[in-house]
């Protein structure tokens, strides 16, 4: 909630109203909301539970306008690192990738194709506030998203468990030093061939143990941090 209030104060989104139970631990948030001109409504625990999607609600529910950000606008500052999600269905994974991208210093996260809504309740919670830290944009036209990344000077690299090249070899060769858009596919099927054909390359995360694979969020963390380290080292 604190991150949403900060974003509201900065003009990044509009919080229309805040519903809260009468608990001392909410006092700081309520004071900030009132100071920012957000209407605050005190409600019962039962009412708060009916407004919340979680099994154990925290007693704070905000109503916010959904930010409308186009990929070109999200890439206007020409970030050096971007995450692109294509056809990702699980909101928990999507939200976690937003959190990981934020932690790795990425400048934007783009949702392309039939990917879950970035503002799905579970995705918002999984992002733990990172959704409000960096531009998040959506476009159902995957090719348009990839073209916007190219226009912003980004090299398109797909994460693919069956790729010939791997992350370690690419890192040693300096292939991760430049501006990069990492493209991640769905949990079940990965990246479609028609998407891979539009990328500069695909790389797999090397597995040194006996696990068959990594889940999407874990693979995204490894890939994004590999690029972040390479870029910091080169810079």
Describe the structure.
With 235 residues, this protein is α/β, with parallel strands linked by helices. The protein has ten helices and nine strands. The strands form two sheets. The protein has a six-stranded parallel beta sheet with strand order 6-5-4-8-7-9, with helices on both faces. The protein has a three-stranded mixed beta sheet with strand order 2-1-3, with helices on one face. Helix 8 (167-172) links the parallel strand 7 and strand 8. Helix 5 packs parallel to helix 6 (121-127) and helix 5 (91-103) packs parallel to helix 10. The radius of gyration is 19 Å and the shape is elongated. The mean pLDDT is 88. InterPro entries: Alpha/beta_knot_MTases (IPR029028), Ribosomal_eL30-like_sf (IPR029064), rRNA_Methyltransferase (IPR051259), SpoU_MeTrfase (IPR001537), SpoU_subst-bd (IPR013123), tRNA_m1G_MTases_N (IPR029026). This is TrmH family RNA methyltransferase. Residues 3-70 form the RNA 2-O ribose methyltransferase substrate binding domain. Belongs to the class IV-like SAM-binding methyltransferase superfamily. RNA methyltransferase TrmH family.
């Amino acid at each position: 909630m604190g991150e949403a209030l900060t974003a509201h104060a900065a003009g990044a989104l509009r919080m229309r109203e805040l519903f809260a139970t009468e608990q001392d631990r909410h006092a700081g948030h309520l004071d900030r909301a009132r100071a920012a001109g957000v209407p605050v409504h005190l409600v019962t625990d039962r009412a708060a539970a009916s407004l919340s999607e979680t099994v154990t609600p925290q007693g704070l529910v905000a109503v916010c306008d959904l930010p409308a950000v186009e990929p070109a606008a999200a890439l206007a500052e020409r970030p050096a690192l971007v995450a692109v999600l294509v056809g990702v269905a699980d909101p928990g994974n999507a939200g976690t990738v937003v959190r990981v991208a934020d932690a790795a210093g990425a400048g934007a996260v783009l949702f392309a194709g039939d990917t879950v809504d970035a503002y799905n309740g579970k995705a918002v919670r999984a992002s733990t506030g990172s959704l409000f830290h960096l531009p998040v944009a959506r476009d159902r036209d995957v090719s348009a998203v990839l073209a916007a990344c190219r226009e912003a000077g980004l090299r398109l690299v797909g994460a693919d468990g069956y790729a010939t090249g791997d992350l370690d070899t690419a890192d040693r060769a300096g292939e991760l030093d430049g501006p990069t858009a990492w493209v991640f596919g769905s949990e079940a099927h990965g990246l479609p061939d028609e998407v891979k054909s539009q990328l500069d390359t695909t790389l797999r995360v090397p597995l040194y143990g006996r696990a068959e694979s990594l889940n999407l969020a874990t693979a995204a963390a490894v890939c994004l941090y590999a690029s972040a380290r390479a870029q910091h080292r080169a810079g």
